[in-house]
Amino acid sequence: MPDLFLFFGLISHNKEFIYSIHMLLSAGLAILLVRAAMSNLQLVPKGTQNVMEAYISGVLQMAVDVMGKEDARRYVALIATIGLFVGIANLIGIVPGFEAPTAFIEMPLSLALVVFVYYNFEGIRRNGVIKYFKHFLGPVWWLYWLMFPIEIVSHFSRIISLTFRLYGNVSGDDKFLMVILMLAPWILPIVPFALLTFMAFLQAFIFMMLTTVYLGSAVAIEDH
Asked: pLDDT of 188-209, one tens digit each?
């Protein structure tokens, strides 16, 4: 958003630079948070370790409900990393002078492509090519000709869905924040900031939940 002051905009107004630096900042903060949680592990967790353990436990339980305990433990690291990275990237945009990298379509699209490729790869690796794609045919043999192209289109539409759900909501929140700061630049708008913080967590949770569902449906096709 060129009308909103950005600290890194003092270096360059190039869109790719602004996006890249905020994306790297999000990744760096995620790494620092994890390192802080693991720097002094204790049997009775406290501080950052307590927060991270609660987060991991919540993600693990969510994954167990979707794909079972064994698969949940196998993929919890990926799911939790995506949620943490997206959550921090969303929250950065709430801080005046910074912009959420998820408000640039490049990051949501990249994450959506990674999720799409990975869950299909895992589905093929765990079930085999024939069994995995046979699942696309549906249970009724005389509807194979109809169900297969529908399933293919449905899976590719997940890229668009993941991308624009995250991008649209975060970019809309950024524009809302810009309007609030223009109207009340010297008075902290508590309620809008609280709402934007909630939305940042919500969008990260939705992206993480959909990743879990897509991954679970790909590796556990016998249960469908």
From this structure: 567 778 888 899 999 999 999 9
- Flag the least confident range among 68-77, 100-109, 192-201: 192-201
* pLDDT above 90 for 224: no
- Residue spans of the domains in the chain: they are 8-223
DSSP per-residue string spanning the chain: -TTS-BSGGGT---HHHHHHHHHHHHHHHHHHHHHHHHTT--SS--THHHHHHHHHHHHHHHHHHHH-HHHHHHHHHHHHHHHHHHHHHHHHTTSTB---GGGSTHHHHHHHHHHHHHHHHHHHHHH-HHHHHHGGG-S-GGGHHHHHHHHHHHHHHHHHHHHHHHHHHHHHHHHHHHHHHHH-SSS--HHHHHHHHHHHHHHHHHHHHHHHHHHHHHH-GGG-
Q: What is the pLDDT of residue 2?
A: 46
**Residue 97, beta-bridge partner list:** 6
Please give the model's pTM, rounded to 2 decimal places. 0.88
